[in-house]
Amino acid sequence: MDDRVGAPAVGSDVVRLSLWPVVVRDGERSDLAVVSDLRRATGRFPHDARLAELVRVLTEGNPTFARLWASGAVAAHREDRKTVRHPKAGPVDVDCDVLTDGDSEFKIVILSAAPGSADEGRLRLAMAADADSGSTPTPAS
């Protein structure tokens, strides 16, 4: 969502899934998928105070989130197409697939590029550059 706010950390286990800047093809669709996935979580965990606080902070500080939350959509975020902007490899177009284990809240996010494509080469370059650096990349601002 483009109108981000500096939300306080709701818990020490809150982790950014993307360490590099990511551009989505259809921002509205992607935002709705994430918000509806969060709504699904609140239905599964209605008494989770940290989750309720996260929703409160986002609703009050982010008009896009507030509008999408008010829509009431409930779904699981399964797939998307994104461009990852890596500082050494450049822009890499990837498919983003989210795998879940049934009713579990564990998710595996897989970023892949079309086999044999220039994007696959850039994705491999990005992975090699990160492995060679031996350090954790600086999160996107």
Structure description:
This is MmyB-like transcription regulator ligand binding domain-containing protein. InterPro entries: MLTR_LBD (IPR041413). It comes from Streptomyces vulcanius. The chain has 141 residues and is an alpha+beta fold. It has one domain. The protein contains 4 helices and 4 strands. It has a 4-stranded antiparallel β-sheet with strand order 1-2-3-4. Strand 2 and strand 3 form a beta hairpin. The chain is elongated and about 45 Å long. The N terminus and C terminus are likely disordered.
Sum this structure up briefly.
This protein is α+β, with helices and mostly antiparallel strands.
Task: Show the helix and strand layout.
Blueprint: E1 22-24, H1 27-44, H2 49-61, H3 63-70, E2 79-86, E3 90-100, E4 107-112, H4 118-133
Antiparallel strand pairs: 1-2, 2-3, 3-4
Overall outline: elongated
Strand content: 15-25%
Q: Note poorly predicted spans.
A: 1-18, 137-141
Count structural domains. 1
Give the fraction of residues assigned to helices.
25-40%
What is the total tally of β strands?
4
Structural class: alpha+beta
Pfam family, one: MLTR_LBD
Organism: Streptomyces vulcanius
Protein name: MmyB-like transcription regulator ligand binding domain-containing protein
InterPro entries: MLTR_LBD
